[in-house]
Amino acid sequence: MGGRISIPLSTFYHGSKFALEGVSESLQYELEPFGIKMILIEPGAVGSNFWKSIKIANGATSPNSPYTQLADNMSKTFKKMEENAMHPSEVAKTILDVVTSDDPQLRYVVGNDAIKIIEARQNMSDKEFGNLIKDQFKIRS
Fold it and tell me: pLDDT, tens digit, for every residue of 10-63?
């Protein structure tokens, strides 16, 4: 889902995911005449080593940084996400179903968290969704 919504302190992660979404969407038009299908699997939080690999820049956690509170809020939220992450087999099952489908879609959202946040994004204005993200990470203006 990181290519459809973004969160703070993850600029380059989301930038690369958004780019992959755009490249894949564009390629689908170019490759379809050759019988090649583009498929995007968009999972929510998945139980993996990803969570242990997350690094927050040292400067952001410094007591003098304007990002200290946000970095702390992010760490707490990531911990909750890790605790509620789906088992990787859910994603694997989706992949198997998709690659054996005769007529796959472009996008497959996997996991209740991803479904809920992407639906929220589609049904809210930019301002409303921005406020939802700010509330989630306790960002004060």
Answer: 889 999 999 999 999 999 999 999 999 999 999 999 998 887 777 777 677 778
- DSSP-assigned letter for residue 67: T
pTM summary value: 0.85
The dihedral sign for the CA sequence 65, 13, 138, 53:
negative
Fold of 11-136: Rossmann fold (3.40.50)
Contact at 8 Å (CB) between 113 and 45?
Answer: yes
Q: Which residues are catalytic?
A: 13
CA 94 and chain centroid, separation = 17
Q: Where are the domains of the chain?
A: 11-136
